[in-house]
Design goal:
By secondary structure, the protein is mainly β. The chain contains one helix and eleven strands, in the order H-E-E-E-E-E-E-E-E-E-E-E.
Length: 141
C-alpha cells in the first residue's frame, strides 16, 4: 500500500448529503478571481411562501444560496449569495447586509452591490417571481 488514506463509505455519503441541492451552490471555492463567473442556478428553485418576505424586508435562503428582498411596492429582487471574490457561500445576513465568512466581503442584499472589499464585483441577480403563492428563483442569463 502507498500510505494513501481512502475515505470511508460514511464520509463519502456524508459529503454527498451536505452538498447543496437545486444547483444553487458554489462550484468550488476558487482563489480570489473577480473575473470568474460565480455559480448560478441550473434550474428554477422554489424558495418559500410568498408571505415569508414582507414589504421592505429581506430573507436569506441559506440552503439555496439565494437572498430575496421585497421593495415597498411589493416587487421582488433575488441575488445569488455566492461571493464574487472567492466563490464562498454567504450564510450571514445582518439587516440588509450580507457578510462573507471567507474574506469579509460585504454586499447590500437589496441591490447586490459591494459594500466592503475584497470583492469588487456585485452579486449575480437572479430572476425571481411568485408562482402559485411560492417564491421561485430561476437561472440567470
Amino acid at each position: 500500500m502507498s500510505g494513501r488514506t481512502v475515505p470511508s463509505r460514511r464520509t463519502v455519503l456524508r459529503s454527498a448529503v451536505l452538498t447543496p441541492v437545486a444547483g444553487l451552490g458554489p462550484a468550488a471555492c476558487s482563489p480570489g478571481d473577480d473575473g470568474a463567473a460565480p455559480a448560478r442556478p441550473t434550474a428554477p428553485v422554489e424558495l418559500g411562501a410568498d408571505g415569508e418576505v414582507a414589504d421592505g424586508a429581506t430573507k436569506l435562503y441559506r440552503d439555496a444560496n439565494v437572498v430575496v428582498s421585497r421593495a415597498g411596492d411589493g416587487s421582488l429582487k433575488a441575488f445569488s449569495t455566492v461571493c464574487t471574490h472567492a466563490g464562498c457561500p454567504i450564510g450571514k445576513l445582518e439587516g440588509t447586509k450580507l457578510v462573507c465568512p471567507c474574506h469579509g466581503s460585504e454586499f447590500d442584499a437589496r441591490t447586490g452591490e459591494v459594500l466592503h472589499a475584497p470583492a469588487t464585483t456585485p452579486l449575480v441577480e437572479l430572476p425571481v417571481e411568485v408562482k402559485q403563492g411560492r417564491i421561485v428563483a430561476s437561472p440567470g442569463t
